[in-house]
Amino acid sequence: MREVVKSGHIVVQKVLKCQALRGLLYNFIKNRKRDRLKKIACDHCHLEFDESVMIEERAEEQTHYFCCRGCQGVYHLLKDEGLDNFYDKVGDTKLQPAAALGQDLQKFDTEGFVKKYVKVNREGLNEIHLIIEGIHCSACVWLNEKILHRTEGVIEATINFTNHKAKIVWDPQLLQLSEIIAKIQSIGYNAYPYDAKLQEERINKERRDYYARLLVAVFATMNIMWIAIAQYVGYFTGMRADYKNILNIAEFLLATPTLFYTGWVFYRGAWYGLKNRFVNMDLLVATGATLAYIYSIYAMVMQHGEVYFDSVTMIITFIFVGKYLEVLSKKKAVDTLDRMTSSLPTEVIVIEEGEKKLKSVEEVQEGDIIEVTPGDRIVIDGRIVMSDASFDLSSLTGESVPVHKGEGDEILSGAICLDAVVRYEALKSYENSMLSTIITLLEESMTKKPKIEKLANEVSGYFSVTILGIALMTFVGWYYFGGSFEHALIVAISVIVIACPCALGLATPVATLVGLGEGAKRGILFKEASFLETMAKSNILLLDKTGTITEGKPEVIGYEEIAAYDPSLLHALVSTSKHPVSQGVRRFLEERHASFSEMPLVSVKNIEARGISALYQGVKIVGGSAKLMEEMGIDVATDADKSLFAFVIDGELKAYFYLRDRPKEGAKEAIAQIRKMGLEVAMLTGDVDEVARKIAKEVGIEKVYSSLFPQEKAAIVDRYHEEGRIVIMAGDGINDALALSKSDIAIAMGSGADISVEVSDVVLMDDKITSLADAIRLSKATYRNIKQNLLLSLTYNALTIPLAVAGYVIPLVAALSMSLSSLLVVGNAVRIKGIFKKRRKDG
Amino acid sequence: MDSNILTLMLGISTFLGALGLGALLWGLKTGQFDDQKRFLDTVHFDNEDDLRDAALMDKRRKEREERRKKEYRPPD
Asked: What is the per-residue pLDDT across A656-673, written as a single tens digit (0 to 9) for each?
């Protein structure tokens, strides 16, 4: 009996240690609590549990209840520190139960760690950026800031409410980093450092800068419009010269900051272009605006003719808005990458001469013996030399089924050790290991991307050169033949103004803006406007299986009861495992039965990749696959493409369940639609061939690549590139990240791993494969619309430019007709909204 | 209407607008809009406690600064 209690104790300890399992337990308890009657909320985290499992505590007249020691500890800590008004602030918000973490904190003080994350500022103070985990509401932020402020030696602590990133400045003489982390952990949260230098600060600065410029431009435009209305009215009905002068000066004052502050971006762009012998759209915008500005000053000073300050302001503002939107989308992407890299361990335990030592990952050499404990992520590739354990390879293969590895087996970095302490020999250095290779490749691919954009720039470059050339010739011609400098300049400016913003400047951005907006409404997010175009031109779609085509969660599709049994017992058994098959059976049971009674199990054992066994009141109960049954000598009918889960009590077969990972709803129809749009569809998966083909057949995909590792998936993308194809790749999970980054258009499903959201160009928020078809349809419609717009504006230019060259158009009319043509283009772009309406009618 | 009045009206309204814009830009530059949620949510918890905290942080910074000046050593 004592043995049993002891082993049960160890199981409980292991469960508590392993973060992943704790989360599961928490979910499990949350799910179960609805079936209970008498429930009491924990005084700290406010989660409700059965009265019998709560820790009861009597103090004075009050009785407090806590769900665990962690919560109890935090509650008293806050009370002692006088911070208990946290509970007033937090209201009824449910928190995560406080974890008793206390894992090795000394790693935060090691040299390698400090060198990597801690910055020493000018005043000699240490500075670090942390991501705080477990924040649910603003009260949590308040509490974290409060506890840090009260810590001696902390000089500054600010936590961002939106992304939960904290900046902490402290005095290294009074305090060590590990003490700060310990403080945060003591109140039930956890903190990871991240490298803020990476990209965030730069992008933040850029975004702020662009926003300031935008504000100035919008302010000036809004005011100049009122004045321009007076000007236009005055032009047609007559206006006293002194009034006109005042209005001119007011416009001048507003146009100047717009052109030189906001428009600075265009000057810079034009200059970079010229330096690299490249004429771009920026140059045309800059030239047109500057010339109009200079002429307007001339007209203002000479009190002769019309001023065009309003055109200058509007040209700059409209085109700048497009640029700003691009900067905005970049910022979002960076937040997710930080989260990914911050969860990677920076140090590992190395066994040297029988002693455990902490070594930074960069220092580990081939042949070193590394020890990992349950819940740790492997960061260096190697071979197991002692003991065995199950590993979660989902970040490499995308399959969530744990894989068992024993002595002599190789393990790859990126895997997570699930259930035992393992020692292994490093076979590669950190830089050459799988995980860091993937990350390096990702970072590289993020910096270089679209090639289509270049082409668009080239076209507009030629256009700009042509227009500038024509304007110059017009000026020379009029000056030579007409003799008047002023008139020649006016005609030349008319040419530039009439051609300038609408032609290519507006045609593309307006159509893409409508396309992007329409996509956003349906949960389809394009990270950059140019991806619409690339997507429309693509001709092959590669799909990941698990999570993209299928649900990723096996469901019970068949059930056979051989003999009567208590479902509560099976429920208790399957709830102990996080294996997807067990989870599938659990969901099935929960759908069929309203409540389950408490069944205390002891000696719960996971039989690697096969099943689970446990003792209930001395009787052995087992649940697992056909293979396990075979080993136990129980005969069950098997079917290769389905998973089987059999339930056995005391050696007697009670029931079995057939499970299968189902294709997502509408997958077949969506794939058929995509093929109809002229794209080839193929499936890439880390799963075995048999299962992959079965699913592919079901959804109507002919081409299947199976049993692939991340690099192999990427290689397939490369192969298609060599054939000159434009590839769309859709997937989730870190295992797809590399292939995603290689493809022309990467699509991440919303619930996928953060890392794949990071590399993807298009994100589908609702995770549906039908949205994928919608995204392709939308991009094609938008691209068609862009082409129409270009044709429209080029025709317009072909008609009006000769008129302007001939001198029939004065600049004011040029500006007016430019606005008119812009309206035409905008009107055409709005038609993109119609595509979804039409389809609804069809459907 | 005298043209001076027009000048006055245009001048004053643009100036006031520019003041508002300037304030907005100042807020932006000092990072007051970086965290939208803080902007709205901290209103709930606004009390003298926070002020005291801010003052405490400030004091600590100054104290350190003074101490640093006292035991100044050339950088090695």
From this structure: 888 877 788 888 888 898
By the CB < 8 Å criterion, does A125 face chain B? yes
Q: Is A385 in CB contact (< 8 Å) with chain B? A: no
Q: Given a cut of 90, is residue A145 above it in pLDDT?
A: no
- Per-residue pLDDT tens digits for A728-741: 888 876 667 778 77
Is residue B76 domain-resident? Answer: no
Which of B56, B60, B62 has the highest number of chain A CBs within 10 A, making it the mutation to test binding with A?
A: B60
C-beta atoms of B57 and A227 within 8 A: no
- In this structure, the dihedral spanned by the alpha carbons of residues A554, A558, A561 and A562, taken in order and rounded to 10 degrees, is -100
**CATH for A524-539+665-765 (3.20.20.140, 3.40.190.10, 3.40.50.1000, 3.40.30.10):** 3.40.50.1000
Is there a contact between A138 and B41 if contact means CB atoms under 8 Å apart? yes
Amino acid of residue A793: S
Instruction: State whether residue A806 is helix, strand or coil.
Output: coil
Pairwise pLDDT comparison (A250 vs A44), residue with the higher score = A250
* A347-429 matches A552-662 in fold: no
CATH architecture entry for A105-198: 2-Layer Sandwich (3.30)
Total Cβ atoms within 10 A of residue A241: 8
- CA nearest A628: which of A588, A582, A662? A582
DSSP codes, A727-762: EEEEE-SHHHHHHHHHSSEEEEETTS-HHHHHH-SE
Tell me which residue in A89, A162, A212 faces B35 most closely, judged by beta carbons.
A162
Count structural domains, chain B.
Answer: 1
Nearest-by-CA chain B residue for A124: B68
Q: Give backbone dihedrals phi and psi of A712, rounded to 5 degrees, phi first.
A: -70, -35
Give the one of B3, B36, B44 whose C-beta lies nearest to A242's C-beta.
Answer: B3
Provide the domain limits for residue B55: 3-70
CB-closest option in A142, A154, A162 to B45: A142
State mean pLDDT over A460-467. Answer: 75
Is residue B8 assigned to a domain? yes
Q: What integer is the mean pLDDT of A790-808? A: 80
- Please report the sign of the dihedral spanned by the C-alpha atoms of residue A287, residue A289, residue A292, residue A298: negative
Q: Is A544 a catalytic residue?
A: yes
Q: Say if CB A280 and CB A221 are below 8 A apart.
A: no
Is B55 within a domain?
Answer: yes
Taking any CB pair shorter than 8 Å as contact, residues of chain B touching chain A are: 3, 6-7, 10-11, 14, 17-18, 21, 24-25, 28-29, 31, 34-38, 41-42, 44-45, 53, 56-57, 60-61, 64-65, 68
DSSP letter assigned to residue A546: I
The residue that leads in pLDDT, A623 or A443, is: A623
* Confidence (pTM): 0.52
Q: Between A319 and A842, whose confidence is greater?
A: A319
Please indicate whether, in this complex, the C-beta atoms of A243 and B6 are within 8 angstroms of each other: yes
Size of interface A-B (CB pairs under 8 A): 77
Identify the architecture of domain A552-662 in CATH: 3-Layer(aba) Sandwich (3.40)
Which residues does chain B have within 8 Å of residue A139's beta carbon, measured at their own beta carbons?
45
Residue of B nearest to A240 (CA): B3
CA of A106 vs chain B CAs: smallest distance (Å): 26
Tell me, yes or no, whether B22 lies in a domain: yes
Measure in Å the smallest separation between the Cα of B50 and chain A Cα atoms.
9
Complex ipTM value: 0.74
Q: How far apart are CA A26 and CA A37, in angstroms?
A: 19
Taking CB atoms and an 8 Å limit, are B37 and A161 in contact across chains?
yes
Domain parsing of chain A, residue ranges: 105-198, 202-335, 347-429, 454-523+783-843, 524-539+665-765, 552-662
CB contact under 8 A, A123 and B29: no
Assigned CATH for A347-429: 2.70.150.10
Nearest CA in chain A to B32: A208
DSSP string, A677-733: TT-EEEEE-SS-HHHHHHHHHHHT--EEE-S--HHHHHHHHHHHHHTT--EEEEE-S
